[in-house]
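Notebook, student rotation project (T.W.).
Task set for the rotation: take a protein with a known small-molecule partner, predict the structure of the complex, and write up what can be learned from the model alone. Partner molecule chosen: S-adenosylmethionine. Sequence and SMILES entered below by T.W., checked by me.
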Amino acid sequence: MSNNYDESNIATMEMIYGEGYLSAGGDREVARIFSGVKVAGKSVLDVGCGLGGAAVSIARDLDAGHVHGVDIDQGVLSRAAQLVEKNNVGNTVTLCHIEPGPLPFPGQHFDLVHLTAVACHFEELDTLIDDIFRVRSLEAAWSDGTG
Ligand SMILES: C[S@@+](CC[C@H](N)C(=O)[O-])C[C@H]1O[C@@H](n2cnc3c(N)ncnc32)[C@H](O)[C@@H]1O
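Predicted structure of the complex:
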């Protein structure tokens, strides 16, 4: 089980990027990424959820039906759990430790898949993208209905 971020790393990252984030942009970037996408009521997979900032924002600000945050690092997941509790989104956000490799979900299990600053951790980008399309529903998600 990996544990790549210590308290000092996390404190530095959060000082730069904001509470719950290990990458730039914060809640505003999450809103920008999902602009034009129907999120309300949908099930969302957050791959490499880190400290949970995006998972919380997707639940709290975008009103997702369910957010499933997964990460290979138990340390950041523990911190994400604290953020979920602090924001009272425990009914909507589930956090789960996974091993590196194929996403451990059946096909078309989620409506939407989100990841930020995670793809760079994968050696086989094609495999990751194929896996994301495998677990994502084929149903149209854009708010204008174009797919
Ligand atoms: C730079 S951090 C970004 C975290 C979060 N998405 C954010 O933007 O704040 C990258 C995250 O991806 C996770 N990660 C790396 N490889 C992974 C894999 N194969 N599956 C799931 N998560 C992974 C790391 O543990 C880390 O939490």
